[in-house]
Each structure stands twice: as structure tokens, then as C-alpha cells.
TrEMBL record:
It comes from the Bacteria. Keywords: Membrane, Transmembrane, Transmembrane helix. It comes from Cognatilysobacter bugurensis. This is Uncharacterized protein. The chain crosses the membrane at residues 18-39, 51-68, 75-93, 109-128, 199-216, 222-240.
Length: 346
């Protein structure tokens, strides 16, 4: 089956996702309008049960009905929709309308505890893997294999892999001591002062966290604690992004170009999917079918892809026509890719 045929087969799924998002947004909007204008039609506070049924039952059940073949992944996403529905309902309903909804509000703390336990579980897995295999193999790849063996291959698994990389690169100064597999590697930290710019941004975020905490604490200590916790996680993510920029390379392999960029991007471009390779410079605007991987640097390599080529990301795969890359040795990468393309065409 060709890449174009695969793309055609997946179009209905993409349309289904767009239709569901439109449906969910319409449900939230209609409930918000009805609650806001309830006083025009009746006296007393707006009832809470229609909002509760729509946001906590109807929307998640419709999602499950559309995605039941995904199994556990669909169930996890439905639970996430319940959490989002609880948050949306808390914003929509005024205090005088909330009776049973106060219980839903209290469950937000349960959801927070679940998130914390999830993160602690990932950190425990990370530390266990580090202790077991720190001298034997590449820790990132070992974590990926451990997660895949336990959870299979799904969007949930890809999210777990990303989260494990965040903690791996965020907690350890030099997490990768064994080389990644590949025939040749290309790094991305020096181009356009990519890593230097990230470090400056990281310092600015770190300096802002205690100042913001003190100022917000003057008004509400609880909100200050929540904002500081989220800011601290953002700092860990940016620290992981900075270190991943230094240590995660693009690798030329027998199958194709393994694209690792920052902490998030990790996919394989097979040789048959690469149509053209050209140098480029200057700013790159967002466009449909265009993927930009430049960090805080600048693009210097443009890869044109064969029609219908899909690139896998965190949320799934999408059709990509062009990939703009920022690489330290752009001339070396272009020469390598062109040589591989010439060999593949023989």
C-alpha cells in the first residue's frame, strides 16, 4: 500500500475528529448561552443538571462511540474529557446554581492527585531504569522500550515517552552517555545560537518564578501555589528541551533519517519519502503541510517529501510536504542525504 493510499484511508478519521471537536464546542457554547440568559425565561437560578449531563456524560460517551476501537487509549481520553467538562461547567455555572456541582468541584483535587501520582510513577520508572542500565545502554532508548513493552503503541504511549524524556533530561545533567544508533549524527545546538538562546530564556523563567509567587501569594496563597507548581514544571520542560538540544542528534541510519529534535520530536523519515534536499535561509512562516524544526535558531536545510508522506507526532500522524531543519553542519547533512538518495535511485 502506498503512502498516498494510507493517507486517503485516514481521512475519514481526521474528519471524524474535527466533527467531534465542533460538536463538543457547540455543546459548551449552547450551555453557556442558556445559563447566561436563563433569567430571561424563568425566575431563580439556572438548573445545573443539564450542564452536568451534557458535559460529564454526553460528550465523553459520544467520543467513546466514535473511538471505541482504540480501547484503553479511548477510555483515557474520555476521562480527560470528563475532567475538561468539570472545569468548563465550573466556569459556566454561577455559584447560586451549584448544589451537586460542589462535589464535582471537589473531585478536581482528586484529579490533581492522580496527575501527581502519574508523574511520581514516571519518575520512579525513570530512576529504576537509570539504576539498572546506566552503564549498559542508551537510557532514552531503554525507557522507550520499557514503556512500549508495557503499554504498546498508541497516542497514550507516545505521551508517556515524551513525559519520560522530559524527566530524564530535566533531572540529569548528562543523561545520555551511550551513543544513539546510526551511521552518522548531526547536532542542532550551535546553529543560530539555538542552545544559547534557550539557556537565556531558561534563566529568565527561573528568575521570574519566585517573584511571581511572592506577588500572587499576597492575593491568594492557593493560587500562588498552583501557579508556582505549573511554572516549576514549565521550567523543568524548558531545561529538558535545552539539554535535549545538546545531546539528541539527527541520525543517518540504513532505513532513513531518524529525526530527533529537542525533547519532543522523534520520528523516522524513510529514504523513499525524501524527494529533494536543498539549503535554505531566512525566516520560515507557518503553512499547511510544513513542519519547522529549528528550535530557537534558524532553518538552513529544506527537505521536500514525496506526496502523501505522513510524519508521526505526539497526537498522531499528519501529511507533511516540507520539513525545515536547523542543523549545525547543514552542508554535511545535505551531502549525506543527497548521496543516500542517489544510492536509493540506482
Amino acid at each position: 500500500m502506498t503512502a498516498l493510499e494510507i493517507a486517503s484511508n485516514r481521512l475519514p478519521a481526521a474528519r471524524s475528529s474535527i466533527a467531534f471537536l465542533a460538536f463538543a464546542a457547540a455543546v459548551v457554547a449552547v450551555n453557556a448561552l442558556l445559563v447566561r440568559n436563563y433569567a430571561r425565561f424563568s425566575t431563580g437560578p439556572a438548573p445545573e443538571w443539564p450542564v452536568m449531563v451534557d458535559l460529564l456524560l454526553v460528550v465523553p460517551l459520544v467520543f467513546l462511540a466514535l473511538n471505541w476501537r482504540q480501547g484503553k487509549a479511548a477510555a483515557f481520553r474520555a476521562l480527560a474529557l470528563v475532567s475538561l467538562g468539570a472545569l468548563a461547567g465550573s466556569l459556566i455555572l454561577p455559584d447560586e446554581s451549584k448544589n451537586a456541582w460542589h462535589v464535582v468541584d471537589d473531585l478536581r483535587y482528586v484529579a490533581l492527585a492522580v496527575v501527581v501520582m502519574f508523574q511520581l510513577g514516571l519518575i520512579t520508572l525513570l530512576l529504576t531504569q537509570v539504576a539498572r542500565e546506566r552503564h549498559s545502554q542508551n537510557l532514552e532508548l531503554a525507557l522507550d522500550r520499557a514503556i512500549s513493552a508495557r503499554f504498546g503503541d498508541s497516542a497514550f504511549t507516545r505521551a508517556l515517552r515524551l513525559e519520560s524524556r522530559v524527566w530524564l533530561y530535566g533531572l540529569f545533567r548528562r543523561p545520555i552517555r551511550q551513543a544513539f544508533p546510526g551511521l552518522r549524527h548531526f547536532h542542532v545546538g550551535k546553529q543560530g545560537m539555538n542552545a544559547t538562546n534557550q539557556l537565556g530564556f531558561l534563566i529568565a523563567i527561573g528568575a521570574e518564578i519566585p517573584i511571581a509567587h511572592v506577588l500572587i501569594h499576597l492575593f491568594d496563597p492557593l493560587i500562588a501555589a498552583v501557579v508556582t507548581a505549573l511554572s516549576a514544571y514549565g521550567f523543568v520542560f524548558m531545561l529538558a528541551e535545552y539539554r535535549a538540544t545538546l545531546y539528541r542528534p539527527l541520525s543517518v541510519t540504513e532505513r532513513g533519517l531518524q529525526v530527533r529534535y529537542g525533547v519532543a520530536s522523534d520520528f523516522l523519515l524513510e529514504w523513499s519519502s525524501i524527494a529533494t534536499v536543498e539549503p535554505t535561509r531566512g525566516p520560515v512562516r507557518r503553512a499547511k503541510g510544513r513542519l519547522r524544526l529549528i528550535g530557537m535558531g534558524e532553518a538552513n536545510v529544506l527537505i521536500g517529501l514525496a506526496p502523501g508522506t505522513r510524519v508521526r507526532g505526539l497526537a498522531g500522524s499528519r501529511v507533511v510536504d516540507q520539513i525545515y531543519l536547523g542543523v549545525d553542519d547543514s552542508a554535511g547533512l545535505i551531502a549525506e542525504l543527497r548521496a543516500r538518495a542517489a544510492q536509493d535511485s540506482i
